[in-house]
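Worked example

This section walks through a single chain of length 162. The input is the sequence exactly as stored; nothing has been trimmed or padded.
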Amino acid sequence: MARVDFYHLQKSSLEDALPQLLTRALGAGARVVVVAASEDRVEDLNTLLWSDRDGWLPHGSARDGHAADQPVWLTDIPTDNPNDATLLILTEGMDSPLVATLPRTLDLFNGRDEAAVAAARARWKARREAGHTLHYWQQTDEGRWVEKARQGGEDGDGAAAG
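Given that input, the structure is written out below as tokens.
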């Protein structure tokens, strides 16, 4: 089964957290597909990554083309993996059948939105029932990530995401 990491965005917005997580993923040699809620959001993220103040991140979307050449692919199609990604990043409550086929997924959700938190809890439960290894990360007041729970896999059981 795959590993799924839930990132509870409390201090940072998606626009702040995504470039940092992508930088780490690319540094580890991963190819990434990012699933956003709409074509407009894909283009918003595309613009964000072109203008990231901490450095440019190589990426593309359907509008750019050449998917196989892109280490990061931005899409609103949950089944899209044209760059042969090894890491899936879900944003804005999106879900994807790729969770079951890729080795790792990051599920980023807005901790300041009760509906988003409730939906993330439902996804956690579904992933747990599917047998995935789960990790739950929460931000500190300083914006650092701290693992608060772990469930499944070799790591033993932990508390549910909250």
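What to look for: The chain has three helices and eight strands.
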